Amino acid sequence: MRTQPVVLATTIAVVVLAAISCQRETPNEPGPEITLLSRIEIAGPPVVVPDSATQYRAIAQARDGSSRDITTQSQWHSSRSGVLSLTPAGIATARSMGESEITIEYLNLRAGLKVLVLTPGTYRVIGVVTESGVPIAGATVQVIENPGTTTVTDALGAYQLYGVAVDTHVRVTKDGYKPLSSSVTVGAHQTLDFALETVSPPTDVRGLYSLTLTADSCPPGVPPDERTRTYDAQVTQDGPRLTVLLSGAQFALRGERGNGFTGHIAPDGITFVLSGWDDYVYHGIYYNLVEVLADTPLKLYTAAGTVSASASPSGISGFLEGEIAAVTALGQYSNSEWWDCVSHKHRFVLQRR
User: Fold this and answer.
1) CA 118/CA 275 separation, integer angstroms
2) In a domain, 242, yes or no
3) Are 178 and 218 in the same domain?
4) The dihedral of CA 61, 62, 67, 72: what is its sign?
Protein backbone atom coordinates (compact mmCIF):
# COMPACT_ATOMS: atom_id res chain seq x y z
CA MET A 1 0.00 0.00 0.00
CA ARG A 2 2.95 2.37 0.64
CA THR A 3 4.80 1.52 -2.57
CA GLN A 4 3.03 4.04 -4.83
CA PRO A 5 3.67 7.14 -2.65
CA VAL A 6 7.37 6.22 -2.42
CA VAL A 7 7.62 5.86 -6.19
CA LEU A 8 5.83 9.17 -6.67
CA ALA A 9 8.18 10.95 -4.25
CA THR A 10 11.17 9.43 -6.01
CA THR A 11 9.82 10.56 -9.38
CA ILE A 12 9.33 14.11 -8.09
CA ALA A 13 12.86 14.14 -6.69
CA VAL A 14 14.26 13.01 -10.05
CA VAL A 15 12.35 15.76 -11.84
CA VAL A 16 13.62 18.39 -9.40
CA LEU A 17 17.20 17.16 -9.75
CA ALA A 18 16.87 17.18 -13.53
CA ALA A 19 15.65 20.76 -13.42
CA ILE A 20 18.57 21.78 -11.20
CA SER A 21 20.95 19.94 -13.53
CA CYS A 22 19.59 21.81 -16.54
CA GLN A 23 20.03 25.11 -14.74
CA ARG A 24 23.62 24.27 -13.91
CA GLU A 25 24.41 23.33 -17.50
CA THR A 26 23.51 26.80 -18.78
CA PRO A 27 25.20 29.21 -16.32
CA ASN A 28 25.92 31.79 -19.01
CA GLU A 29 22.33 32.30 -20.09
CA PRO A 30 21.18 35.86 -19.29
CA GLY A 31 18.88 36.26 -16.32
CA PRO A 32 15.42 37.76 -16.67
CA GLU A 33 16.64 41.26 -15.70
CA ILE A 34 19.28 41.33 -18.45
CA THR A 35 16.83 40.31 -21.15
CA LEU A 36 14.46 43.12 -20.06
CA LEU A 37 17.11 45.86 -20.30
CA SER A 38 17.82 47.65 -23.59
CA ARG A 39 20.83 49.73 -22.46
CA ILE A 40 22.49 51.62 -19.63
CA GLU A 41 23.73 55.21 -19.71
CA ILE A 42 25.53 57.82 -17.61
CA ALA A 43 23.66 60.98 -16.62
CA GLY A 44 25.76 64.05 -15.83
CA PRO A 45 27.51 67.07 -17.37
CA PRO A 46 30.17 66.58 -20.11
CA VAL A 47 32.15 69.59 -18.81
CA VAL A 48 33.08 70.33 -15.17
CA VAL A 49 35.35 72.90 -13.51
CA PRO A 50 38.56 72.08 -11.62
CA ASP A 51 38.37 71.47 -7.85
CA SER A 52 34.69 70.57 -8.02
CA ALA A 53 32.69 67.45 -7.11
CA THR A 54 29.90 66.24 -9.36
CA GLN A 55 27.38 63.44 -8.88
CA TYR A 56 27.02 61.20 -11.95
CA ARG A 57 24.26 58.63 -12.11
CA ALA A 58 23.90 55.30 -13.90
CA ILE A 59 20.51 54.75 -15.47
CA ALA A 60 19.15 51.43 -16.78
CA GLN A 61 16.66 51.66 -19.64
CA ALA A 62 14.17 48.77 -19.95
CA ARG A 63 12.61 47.52 -23.17
CA ASP A 64 9.18 48.71 -22.05
CA GLY A 65 10.43 52.32 -21.86
CA SER A 66 10.82 52.50 -18.11
CA SER A 67 14.08 53.36 -16.38
CA ARG A 68 15.65 53.06 -12.93
CA ASP A 69 18.70 54.33 -11.07
CA ILE A 70 21.51 51.73 -10.80
CA THR A 71 24.23 54.11 -9.60
CA THR A 72 25.21 52.14 -6.51
CA GLN A 73 24.91 48.77 -8.28
CA SER A 74 27.31 49.72 -11.10
CA GLN A 75 31.09 49.57 -11.29
CA TRP A 76 32.62 52.99 -11.99
CA HIS A 77 35.94 53.70 -13.74
CA SER A 78 37.87 56.79 -14.85
CA SER A 79 40.41 56.54 -17.68
CA ARG A 80 42.53 59.32 -16.12
CA SER A 81 42.11 59.46 -12.38
CA GLY A 82 44.64 62.30 -12.15
CA VAL A 83 42.18 64.45 -14.10
CA LEU A 84 38.90 63.06 -12.74
CA SER A 85 38.68 60.62 -9.85
CA LEU A 86 35.57 58.57 -9.04
CA THR A 87 34.00 56.98 -5.98
CA PRO A 88 31.93 53.76 -6.11
CA ALA A 89 28.84 55.97 -5.71
CA GLY A 90 29.56 57.89 -8.94
CA ILE A 91 30.87 61.09 -7.33
CA ALA A 92 33.56 62.63 -9.58
CA THR A 93 36.21 65.00 -8.27
CA ALA A 94 37.85 67.23 -10.91
CA ARG A 95 41.54 67.45 -10.03
CA SER A 96 43.19 69.10 -13.05
CA MET A 97 42.33 70.39 -16.50
CA GLY A 98 42.17 67.69 -19.12
CA GLU A 99 39.89 64.95 -20.38
CA SER A 100 38.81 61.60 -18.96
CA GLU A 101 36.29 58.96 -19.93
CA ILE A 102 33.89 57.72 -17.26
CA THR A 103 32.70 54.16 -17.81
CA ILE A 104 30.16 52.03 -15.96
CA GLU A 105 29.53 48.30 -15.99
CA TYR A 106 26.33 46.62 -14.89
CA LEU A 107 25.67 42.92 -15.44
CA ASN A 108 26.89 42.41 -19.02
CA LEU A 109 26.22 45.99 -20.16
CA ARG A 110 28.67 48.91 -20.46
CA ALA A 111 28.43 52.65 -21.13
CA GLY A 112 30.83 55.57 -21.31
CA LEU A 113 30.89 59.37 -21.16
CA LYS A 114 33.81 61.67 -22.05
CA VAL A 115 34.20 64.51 -19.57
CA LEU A 116 36.27 67.69 -19.99
CA VAL A 117 37.71 69.50 -16.97
CA LEU A 118 38.08 73.17 -17.91
CA THR A 119 38.17 76.57 -16.26
CA PRO A 120 35.03 78.56 -17.23
CA GLY A 121 35.57 80.59 -20.40
CA THR A 122 38.33 78.30 -21.73
CA TYR A 123 38.29 75.53 -24.32
CA ARG A 124 40.10 72.49 -25.71
CA VAL A 125 42.31 72.80 -28.81
CA ILE A 126 43.55 69.64 -30.51
CA GLY A 127 45.46 68.97 -33.72
CA VAL A 128 48.32 67.29 -35.53
CA VAL A 129 51.85 68.54 -36.28
CA THR A 130 53.34 67.29 -39.56
CA GLU A 131 56.08 67.87 -42.10
CA SER A 132 55.09 67.19 -45.73
CA GLY A 133 52.21 65.14 -44.36
CA VAL A 134 54.43 63.04 -42.08
CA PRO A 135 53.58 63.20 -38.33
CA ILE A 136 56.22 64.84 -36.12
CA ALA A 137 56.62 63.37 -32.66
CA GLY A 138 58.16 65.28 -29.77
CA ALA A 139 57.22 68.78 -30.96
CA THR A 140 56.37 71.29 -28.20
CA VAL A 141 52.98 73.02 -28.53
CA GLN A 142 52.52 76.00 -26.21
CA VAL A 143 50.12 78.88 -25.56
CA ILE A 144 52.34 81.99 -25.70
CA GLU A 145 50.21 84.05 -23.29
CA ASN A 146 50.21 81.19 -20.77
CA PRO A 147 53.48 79.18 -20.90
CA GLY A 148 52.05 76.71 -18.40
CA THR A 149 49.57 75.56 -21.03
CA THR A 150 51.93 73.34 -23.02
CA THR A 151 52.18 69.79 -24.30
CA VAL A 152 54.26 67.54 -26.56
CA THR A 153 53.07 65.70 -29.66
CA ASP A 154 52.81 61.90 -29.49
CA ALA A 155 54.07 59.30 -31.97
CA LEU A 156 51.24 60.21 -34.36
CA GLY A 157 52.03 63.93 -34.17
CA ALA A 158 48.83 64.61 -32.20
CA TYR A 159 48.48 67.07 -29.33
CA GLN A 160 45.79 68.33 -26.93
CA LEU A 161 45.69 71.66 -25.10
CA TYR A 162 43.19 72.30 -22.31
CA GLY A 163 42.22 75.67 -20.86
CA VAL A 164 42.84 77.81 -23.97
CA ALA A 165 41.35 81.31 -23.65
CA VAL A 166 39.27 83.13 -26.25
CA ASP A 167 42.06 85.10 -28.00
CA THR A 168 45.54 83.61 -27.89
CA HIS A 169 48.62 82.52 -29.83
CA VAL A 170 49.77 78.93 -30.15
CA ARG A 171 53.44 78.23 -30.92
CA VAL A 172 55.05 74.98 -32.13
CA THR A 173 58.78 74.31 -31.83
CA LYS A 174 61.21 71.45 -32.33
CA ASP A 175 64.96 71.37 -32.88
CA GLY A 176 65.79 71.32 -36.59
CA TYR A 177 62.45 72.88 -37.61
CA LYS A 178 61.42 76.49 -38.17
CA PRO A 179 59.20 77.71 -35.29
CA LEU A 180 55.59 78.28 -36.23
CA SER A 181 52.85 80.19 -34.42
CA SER A 182 49.21 80.92 -35.09
CA SER A 183 46.77 83.41 -33.61
CA VAL A 184 43.57 81.76 -32.48
CA THR A 185 40.15 83.14 -31.64
CA VAL A 186 38.58 80.34 -29.67
CA GLY A 187 34.83 80.38 -29.12
CA ALA A 188 34.43 76.63 -28.88
CA HIS A 189 36.47 73.44 -28.83
CA GLN A 190 38.36 73.29 -32.11
CA THR A 191 41.07 71.62 -34.20
CA LEU A 192 44.26 73.42 -35.19
CA ASP A 193 46.88 71.63 -37.31
CA PHE A 194 50.46 72.76 -37.98
CA ALA A 195 52.78 71.97 -40.91
CA LEU A 196 56.44 72.58 -40.05
CA GLU A 197 59.43 73.07 -42.33
CA THR A 198 62.97 71.92 -41.61
CA VAL A 199 65.70 74.51 -41.19
CA SER A 200 67.80 72.63 -43.78
CA PRO A 201 66.71 70.30 -46.59
CA PRO A 202 66.69 66.61 -45.59
CA THR A 203 69.80 64.55 -46.25
CA ASP A 204 69.70 62.71 -49.57
CA VAL A 205 69.89 58.98 -48.76
CA ARG A 206 68.67 57.58 -52.08
CA GLY A 207 70.58 54.67 -53.56
CA LEU A 208 71.35 50.96 -53.50
CA TYR A 209 72.10 49.23 -50.21
CA SER A 210 72.32 45.82 -48.63
CA LEU A 211 70.03 45.42 -45.62
CA THR A 212 71.10 43.16 -42.75
CA LEU A 213 68.71 42.32 -39.93
CA THR A 214 70.12 40.52 -36.88
CA ALA A 215 67.61 39.26 -34.31
CA ASP A 216 68.33 39.87 -30.62
CA SER A 217 67.19 38.01 -27.47
CA CYS A 218 66.50 34.77 -29.32
CA PRO A 219 65.84 31.39 -27.67
CA PRO A 220 68.47 28.65 -27.95
CA GLY A 221 68.47 26.69 -31.18
CA VAL A 222 67.74 29.47 -33.66
CA PRO A 223 69.92 28.72 -36.73
CA PRO A 224 72.54 31.47 -37.27
CA ASP A 225 71.61 31.83 -40.94
CA GLU A 226 67.98 32.53 -39.92
CA ARG A 227 68.81 34.85 -37.06
CA THR A 228 70.72 37.12 -39.50
CA ARG A 229 69.16 37.85 -42.89
CA THR A 230 70.57 39.99 -45.70
CA TYR A 231 68.72 41.49 -48.69
CA ASP A 232 69.34 43.83 -51.59
CA ALA A 233 67.62 47.15 -50.91
CA GLN A 234 66.74 50.14 -53.05
CA VAL A 235 65.95 53.35 -51.14
CA THR A 236 63.92 56.05 -52.87
CA GLN A 237 63.14 59.45 -51.38
CA ASP A 238 60.44 62.10 -51.78
CA GLY A 239 61.33 64.98 -49.47
CA PRO A 240 61.30 63.45 -45.95
CA ARG A 241 59.51 60.29 -47.10
CA LEU A 242 61.55 57.14 -47.69
CA THR A 243 60.59 53.89 -49.40
CA VAL A 244 62.67 50.71 -49.16
CA LEU A 245 62.14 47.93 -51.73
CA LEU A 246 63.81 44.57 -51.02
CA SER A 247 64.99 41.89 -53.44
CA GLY A 248 67.46 39.00 -53.52
CA ALA A 249 65.22 36.49 -51.71
CA GLN A 250 61.90 34.66 -52.09
CA PHE A 251 59.16 36.78 -50.56
CA ALA A 252 55.54 35.89 -49.83
CA LEU A 253 53.78 38.89 -51.36
CA ARG A 254 50.26 40.15 -50.90
CA GLY A 255 49.48 43.17 -53.03
CA GLU A 256 52.28 45.68 -52.47
CA ARG A 257 53.28 44.18 -49.11
CA GLY A 258 55.81 41.56 -48.20
CA ASN A 259 59.09 42.96 -49.55
CA GLY A 260 59.30 46.61 -48.54
CA PHE A 261 58.54 49.31 -45.98
CA THR A 262 58.50 53.08 -45.56
CA GLY A 263 60.30 55.61 -43.40
CA HIS A 264 60.80 59.25 -42.56
CA ILE A 265 64.00 61.28 -42.39
CA ALA A 266 64.04 64.11 -39.84
CA PRO A 267 66.72 66.44 -38.45
CA ASP A 268 67.12 64.22 -35.39
CA GLY A 269 67.27 60.86 -37.18
CA ILE A 270 65.54 58.35 -39.43
CA THR A 271 62.53 56.22 -38.57
CA PHE A 272 61.29 53.15 -40.45
CA VAL A 273 58.04 51.33 -39.69
CA LEU A 274 57.64 47.62 -40.43
CA SER A 275 54.00 46.73 -39.88
CA GLY A 276 52.97 43.34 -38.54
CA TRP A 277 49.78 41.37 -38.95
CA ASP A 278 46.64 43.18 -37.72
CA ASP A 279 43.54 41.02 -37.33
CA TYR A 280 41.40 43.97 -36.24
CA VAL A 281 41.28 45.36 -39.77
CA TYR A 282 38.92 43.83 -42.34
CA HIS A 283 40.81 41.02 -44.12
CA GLY A 284 43.82 41.84 -41.91
CA ILE A 285 46.87 43.99 -42.63
CA TYR A 286 49.74 42.02 -44.08
CA TYR A 287 53.36 42.17 -42.92
CA ASN A 288 55.75 44.56 -44.69
CA LEU A 289 58.44 41.86 -44.65
CA VAL A 290 57.70 38.16 -45.22
CA GLU A 291 60.45 35.91 -46.57
CA VAL A 292 59.92 32.25 -47.44
CA LEU A 293 62.68 30.34 -45.65
CA ALA A 294 61.34 26.92 -46.66
CA ASP A 295 58.39 25.57 -48.65
CA THR A 296 57.96 22.13 -47.05
CA PRO A 297 57.18 22.43 -44.26
CA LEU A 298 56.36 26.09 -44.70
CA LYS A 299 58.62 28.45 -42.74
CA LEU A 300 58.07 32.21 -43.05
CA TYR A 301 60.47 34.84 -41.72
CA THR A 302 58.75 38.02 -40.46
CA ALA A 303 59.96 41.27 -38.93
CA ALA A 304 57.71 43.92 -37.38
CA GLY A 305 58.36 47.03 -35.30
CA THR A 306 59.87 50.52 -35.42
CA VAL A 307 63.44 51.31 -36.45
CA SER A 308 65.29 54.28 -34.97
CA ALA A 309 68.43 54.97 -37.03
CA SER A 310 70.94 57.56 -38.15
CA ALA A 311 72.66 58.21 -41.47
CA SER A 312 76.36 58.32 -42.25
CA PRO A 313 78.35 58.38 -45.53
CA SER A 314 78.51 54.57 -45.42
CA GLY A 315 74.80 53.98 -44.85
CA ILE A 316 72.00 53.93 -42.29
CA SER A 317 72.16 51.97 -39.04
CA GLY A 318 70.12 51.60 -35.88
CA PHE A 319 67.90 49.25 -33.94
CA LEU A 320 64.52 47.65 -34.56
CA GLU A 321 62.21 47.56 -31.55
CA GLY A 322 59.71 44.79 -32.07
CA GLU A 323 59.52 41.15 -33.09
CA ILE A 324 61.46 38.97 -35.51
CA ALA A 325 60.10 35.45 -35.90
CA ALA A 326 59.80 32.37 -38.09
CA VAL A 327 56.22 31.08 -38.32
CA THR A 328 54.25 28.39 -40.12
CA ALA A 329 51.41 30.71 -41.16
CA LEU A 330 50.14 34.26 -40.74
CA GLY A 331 47.04 35.60 -39.02
CA GLN A 332 45.19 35.26 -35.75
CA TYR A 333 45.09 31.45 -35.86
CA SER A 334 48.80 31.02 -36.62
CA ASN A 335 49.96 30.17 -33.12
CA SER A 336 52.60 27.68 -34.28
CA GLU A 337 56.01 29.34 -34.39
CA TRP A 338 59.39 27.95 -35.31
CA TRP A 339 61.02 30.62 -33.17
CA ASP A 340 60.32 34.11 -31.89
CA CYS A 341 62.67 36.94 -30.79
CA VAL A 342 61.25 40.06 -29.09
CA SER A 343 63.64 42.91 -28.31
CA HIS A 344 64.25 46.64 -28.60
CA LYS A 345 67.77 46.00 -29.94
CA HIS A 346 67.42 43.98 -33.14
CA ARG A 347 70.30 45.23 -35.29
CA PHE A 348 69.31 47.11 -38.48
CA VAL A 349 72.01 48.05 -41.02
CA LEU A 350 71.59 49.50 -44.52
CA GLN A 351 75.09 49.38 -46.03
CA ARG A 352 75.53 51.63 -49.04
CA ARG A 353 76.87 49.90 -52.15
Assistant:
1) 38
2) yes
3) no
4) negative
Last residue of a domain, one of 100, 117, 134: 117
Burial profile 11-30: b = 16 or more Cβ within 10 angstroms, e = fewer? eeeeeeeeeeeeeeeeeeee
3-class state of residue 157 by DSSP: coil
Residue 330 is predicted with a pLDDT of: 76
| Distance, CA of 130 to CA of 194 (rounded, Å) | 6
Q: State which amino acid sits at residue 164.
A: V
C-alpha 180/C-alpha 176 separation (Å) is 12
Please give the model's pTM, rounded to 2 decimal places: 0.74
User: Quick one: 131 and 52 in the same domain?
Assistant: no
Q: How far apart are CA 262 and CA 259, in angstroms?
A: 11
Residue 297 preceded by cis peptide, ω within 30: yes
Averaged pLDDT, groups of 10, the chain, 353 residues long: 39 34 41 74 97 97 93 97 97 97 95 96 95 92 92 95 92 96 90 95 96 97 96 96 97 93 94 80 74 93 96 97 90 69 97 97
Q: Which one-letter amino acid corresponds to residue 35?
A: T
What pLDDT shows up at residue 157?
95
- Name the β-bridge partners of 113: 102
58 burial (CB, 10 Å; 0-12 / 13-18 / 19+) is buried
Rounded Cα distance between 150 and 45, Å, is 26
β-partners of residue 181 are 171
